[in-house]
Write a structure and sequence with these properties.
- The structure holds 3 protein chains of 3 kinds.
- By secondary structure, chain A is of the alpha/beta class.
- Chain A has helices at 41-48, 89-99, 104-117, 133-145, 163-178, 190-196, 214-217, 222-229, 240-248; strands at residues 2-9, 18-24, 30-35, 59-65, 71-74, 151-155, 182-186, 199-204, 207-212.
- Chain A has 2 domains: 2-216, P-loop containing nucleotide triphosphate hydrolases (Rossmann fold, 3-Layer(aba) Sandwich), CATH 3.40.50.300; 219-249, no CATH class.
- Chain A is 36% helix and 22% strand.
- The longest helix of chain A is centred in the C-terminal third of the chain and has 16 residues, at 163-178.
- By secondary structure, chain B is mostly helical.
- Chain B has a single domain (3-185), classed as Arp2/3 complex 21 kDa subunit ARPC3 (Orthogonal Bundle).
- In chain B, helix 2 runs antiparallel to helix 3, helix 2 (35-43) packs across helix 4 (73-88) and helix 5 (95-121) packs antiparallel against helix 7.
- Helices cover 72% and strands 3% of the residues of chain C.
- Chain C has a two-stranded antiparallel ribbon with strand order 1-2.
- The chains are: A alpha/beta, B mainly alpha, C mainly alpha.
- At the B-C interface, helix 1, helix 3, helix 6 and helix 7 of B face helix 4, helix 5, helix 7, helix 8 and helix 9 of C.
């Protein structure tokens, strides 16, 4: 996936939501996006995933190359992402591959693997309506993974999860990258981004203002804030391990 | 129909069902169970509105168990087409014209539903309407007249109110949402 | 009270289209006949349909609750207020043709309610989805019929939230009919706007999971459509066609 000088405006908007963004996402990598509300992170995901302007309307200028049509997207709230057709979690997760008309065995295999990845096999026979928000969000991610996407974009996917669930989800992203998926995740959660992404984009006003490894571009994790307050020179260590390494050295 | 239209239709059907239940719970003398259909007609168009209306009719029957309502699906088609036409003519731009157009729909809808009620069910269908019918009949009105009068009085109020509410919703629609529905621009 | 009742009857095990076809057939039959006796034969057939699925007891109560008010009104409307000749039942004059009409309309109502409540009780929604998928029913139709029902409880919960929020701001739901009508705006507008705000995410989520895929979807557990199923549905079709042929042709000739 590559963008070259991409500018995108929603229909009826006076100012573009995305301004002159150039960017390439490789298979097998996790790229993080962060920024304040309204900075354009969600829009970048929609454009990078090929959903804008196809499904949202609006106008895109610049170049965009997307080398795959197997693209998955995950949002923060689970309720809007369910089909509402399934009375079991298994049926919900199987919906995607079944829609493609794949043979029954292959559908069930993809469904089983996705349930395992998210650690929700034990929920397979439950009614989605009976699950908690956190459980449901993991089912939603499993449903998208069952489509075996080559490009996966996630918009603050752990907003509804408890800390342990969020950790588990972010730990899965590098694993998906190892299997060859290109992962693009947007979140204000710098700590987890620092741990999972090998590259982070910081956005402001629709532009990418910083781009590089987390240690070079992030400076607002708790540890980084403490390090800065303590007079540590930049780049700041982002987590405890990095801080310890710096101090020991 | 695009996927997005489909999602809007589902929303319209759900609004029909839920607002209909709210109106019943508030013991209002109106149904309000066509707000979603009219909304879909203004946002997407007549075809989607017909689908929303017919689906609502079936699901209303499934949820309430009252399958005698099914033949009134014809009325839903009439409502969908009328609402789409009214939207095309700009009736929803002002509250006054919306109410007037809703009044007109009341006449059209009652003219469709009264014969169904009379021929298929002997005038005894939805609770409140039937009560009005019975009172009028007791006062000496011939049965067809009583059925028609009952249908008209309820439908005129109901449809005027539905159109007024949809006009208010459309006016409250934020600009960035409104531009996503090309039907509205016309 | 109303909905699917798990069971092991032949109707429960049948292809989901079969109970639906029988219920539709009974509805059409109820309108095909116009003599009070014949209408109540259809009612008896509907009751038999319910009994054969072992759900007669379950469906009788909602059917009665739904039918009774209308029956009472029909009795007043046609029986007491109907035309001559009248019979005296104690102190009241009861119209004979009106009474017959009330029996016909009341019977149709009863037959429709019994038939469809039975279909509702015997057809599992999940199996119906599988059956429709296996038949290649367009996704949109399945989606609207089934998935809307899962949206309704969520929308209803949101109504409750909105009511709570607006009551904090002084909205009153009681009072005169006019006051209650006025309460509708602050209720309906936020409900619809918040639902519309979710449309794009819902459409995107469906899109990435093959919502627009053409071609037949895979049914994971397609219900078996046996020879008996097809025979029953054919018999229903033949009976309905015969009844209407009799109604429109037989009566004239």
């Amino acid at each position: 996936m590559a963008l070259d000088a991409a500018t995108f405006a929603y229909p009826g908007a006076r100012t573009p939501a995305l301004l002159d963004v150039s960017l390439a996402i490789e298979a097998g990598t996790v790229t993080g996006v962060t920024g304040a509300v309204g900075a354009g992170t969600s829009t970048l995901l929609l454009v990078a995933g090929g959903f804008a302007p196809r499904l949202t309307g609006g106008a895109l200028s610049g170049r965009r190359d997307i080398a795959t049509n197997r693209i998955g997207i995950v949002f923060a709230t689970p309720w809007t992402q369910l089909t509402g057709l399934a009375t079991t979690v298994r049926a919900e997760v199987a919906f995607g591959p079944a829609s493609l008309g794949r043979p029954r065995g292959s559908v069930l295999a993809a469904c089983g693997a996705a349930l395992r990845d998210l650690g929700v096999e034990h929920l397979a026979d439950r009614d989605p309506a009976s699950l908690s928000g956190g459980e449901l969000q993991r089912v939603v991610v499993a449903s998208v993974l069952a489509m075996e996407p080559e490009l996966l974009v996630l918009d603050d996917p752990a907003a509804e999860l408890d800390p342990a669930g969020a950790d588990a989800l972010y730990a899965l992203l590098p694993e998906l990258a190892r299997r060859g998926t290109a992962v693009l995740v947007a979140t204000p959660d710098s700590e987890r981004l620092a741990r999972t992404a090998e590259r982070v984009l910081v956005m402001e006003g629709g532009r990418v203002t910083r781009d590089g490894p987390p240690a070079a571009v992030l400076d607002d994790t708790d540890v980084a804030r403490i390090a800065r307050a303590a007079g540590c020179p930049a780049p700041y260590p982002l987590d405890v391990a990095a801080l310890v390494a710096r101090v020991v050295r | 129909m695009t996927l997005r239209d489909l999602v809007v239709v589902r929303l319209g059907v759900a609004v029909n069902l839920v607002v209909g239940q709210v109106a019943a719970a508030l013991l209002l003398p109106v149904y309000l169970d066509t707000i979603g259909t009219v909304l879909v007609a203004t946002l997407v168009g007549p075809r989607a509105a017909i689908v929303a209306g017919l689906t609502s009719q079936v699901l209303n029957a499934v949820l309430s168990g009252n399958f005698t309502w099914l033949p009134f699906g014809v009325v839903q088609i009439v409502i969908a087409l009328y609402a789409a036409l009214a939207a095309r003519l700009g009736a929803f731009r002002r509250l006054g014209t919306a109410v007037a157009a809703g009044f007109g729909l009341g006449i059209v809808a009652a003219s469709t539903s009264a014969p169904i009620s009379y021929y298929l069910f002997g005038g005894a269908t939805a609770g409140g309407v039937t009560a009005v019918t019975t009172v009028l009949r007791a006062l000496g009105a011939p049965l067809p007249v009583a059925v028609a009068a009952a249908s008209y009085s309820t439908d005129l109020l109901d449809k005027s109110l539905v159109f007024a509410l949809v006009a208010v919703v459309l006016r409250s629609l934020p600009r960035q949402m409104a531009v996503r529905f090309p039907m509205l621009a016309r | 009270m109303i909905g699917y009742v798990p069971g092991a009857s032949a109707l429960h095990r049948a292809h989901p289209y079969t109970p639906l076809a029988i219920a539709t057939g009974l509805l059409l039959m109820a309108f095909a006949v116009s003599a009070p006796g014949a209408v109540w034969v259809v009612v008896a057939a509907a009751a038999l349909f319910a009994a054969s699925a072992g759900v007669l007891g379950t469906v009788l109560r909602p059917a009665a609750i739904l039918a009774l008010p209308t029956w009472v009104l029909l009795t007043i409307l046609h029986g007491l207020l109907g035309g001559a000749p009248h019979v005296m039942l104690g102190p009241v004059a009861f119209s004979v043709p009106g009474g017959e009409r009330a029996l016909v309309f009341g019977g149709r109502l009863a037959a429709i309610l019994l038939a469809f409540l039975t279909a509702l009780a015997t057809v599992s929604p999940a199996r119906l989805v599988e059956a429709m998928t296996a038949r290649g029913v367009p996704f949109g139709r399945v989606y609207l019929l089934v998935s809307t029902l899962t949206v309704v409880p969520r929308l209803r919960a949101r109504v409750r939230q909105i009511v709570d929020a607006q009551q904090c701001r002084g909205l009153r739901l009681g009072g005169s009919p006019l006051a209650r009508l006025r309460a509708l705006g602050p209720l309906v507008v936020p409900l619809v706007l918040s639902a519309l705000a979710e449309v794009d995410e819902q459409a995107l989520a469906l899109d990435v999971r093959g919502g627009t895929a053409r071609g037949r979807r895979t049914a994971l557990e397609p219900p078996e459509d046996s020879r008996a199923d097809r025979a029953v549905r054919l018999a229903v079709l033949v009976a309905v066609v015969a009844a209407y042929a009799w109604k429109f042709l037989g009566a004239g000739g």
